[in-house]
Design a protein that fits this description.
Distance between the termini: 36 Å
Order of helices and strands: HHHHHHHHHEEHEH
Length: about 350
């Protein structure tokens, strides 16, 4: 992108906000769908947490109480994700010219910590306590009913998330697994993973409750609670790792980088693109910067025209590209590293 003429700071910010709003013209539906997915999951988890708590208290089941803690953690998680969506979609301002997209990942990281601390911690503690001290067996019928109803509610939330994932995967021409692995929409990833873990946890709780009922040994119920806790640790670790990577500025996949480089290299008077950087600045928001080697006899006016065309092409053809900065030099990007070597 060519350097703009000197203007006031207010005008620059306003220009950036208007450009970003125009580029995001088609993003409202996706944002609304993600918000709907989070709200449905949060309401379902809150109702399920109350039902599981009642069932656990009646049946004296550690696995059921662990599942109640699991659902409480998921409810807190959905609150964090809702905050992430709202705060992360604020427009750019003077202090944050690229917007607040990365704040989404901060709140999503807190959500993963909630899953780890509230859900996994309580589940493992409850399971170990049951194995060591034992527990009084109550009526398991209520717990079975709660588990069945919870499975239906969690399943409805999970299906909504899966439909969104499959729709997005078809749009990008990838498998649902590849989409979940690479998406920068961390809210969809979190809801999908947590609902999947919730369904598995319900099956584990039912199995532990059944084995305790058949054998009369509370160890099975305690083991089920511990396995649920371990499951939550795995989910929390996966989500935390993804959010930390995005929070500190993750690049896009090599495939997409190659496409972006090819788009720029195909422009008139472009000889080579020796250096290209990409950085995720928010869910489905991307910054592209590149050094471009132009023909030696190309005019300054042509460089400006081609740079503007590069931005138009990348924004139009690659959904999510928000900013494009081109440097008309043939450097390889190592000059700064050579001038300022890292301190030993």
């Amino acid at each position: 992108m060519t350097q703009p003429a000197p203007t006031t700071e207010h005008a620059l910010v306003k220009e950036a906000q208007e450009a970003d709003a125009a580029r995001q013209g088609g993003g409202g539906d996706a944002e609304g769908e993600s918000t709907g997915t989070v709200i449905v999951a949060g309401l379902a988890n809150l109702a399920i947490a109350i039902a599981k708590l009642i069932g656990g208290l009646i049946s004296h089941s550690s696995a059921m109480l662990s599942e109640a803690a699991h659902s409480v953690a998921d409810t807190v998680t959905e609150v964090f994700l809702f905050v992430a969506l709202k705060r992360g979609n604020r427009p750019p301002d003077t202090k944050h010219p690229f917007g607040y997209g990365r704040e989404t990942y901060f709140w999503a990281f807190l959500a993963s910590l909630a899953t780890f601390g509230l859900g996994a911690g309580f589940s493992i503690w409850q399971g170990v306590t049951t194995i060591i001290e034992g527990e009084e067996q109550g009526d398991p019928l209520v717990s079975y009913i709660v588990l069945a109803v919870s499975f239906l509610l969690e399943g409805a939330s999970w299906l909504k998330a899966v439909r969104q994932v499959r729709g997005a995967a078809r749009k990008w021409g990838v498998t649902p697994g590849e989409y979940l692995s690479g998406t920068t929409d961390t809210t969809v990833k979190a809801v999908t993973f947590e609902d999947s873990a919730a369904l598995i946890g319900l099956v584990l709780a039912a199995l532990g409750l059944f084995l305790e009922q058949v054998t009369g040994d509370p160890v099975w119920d305690g083991l089920a609670a511990i396995v649920i806790g371990i499951l939550l640790i795995v989910v929390a670790a996966v989500l935390a790792r993804a959010n930390v990577s995005l929070l500190i500025g993750q690049s896009v996949s090599p495939r997409l980088q190659a496409e972006l480089r090819a788009e720029i290299a195909a422009l008139e008077h472009v000889v080579d693109v020796p250096f290209l950087l990409t950085s995720v600045i928010g869910p489905t928001q991307l910054l592209v910067a590149a050094k471009v080697d132009f023909d030696d006899d190309v005019s300054a006016g042509d460089i400006e025209r081609i740079s503007d065309e590069a931005e138009r092409r990348l924004v139009a053809r690659h959904e999510g590209v928000r900013y494009v900065f081109l440097d008309p030099t043939a450097g390889d990007g190592r000059a700064r590293a050579q001038v300022h070597p890292p301190a030993s």
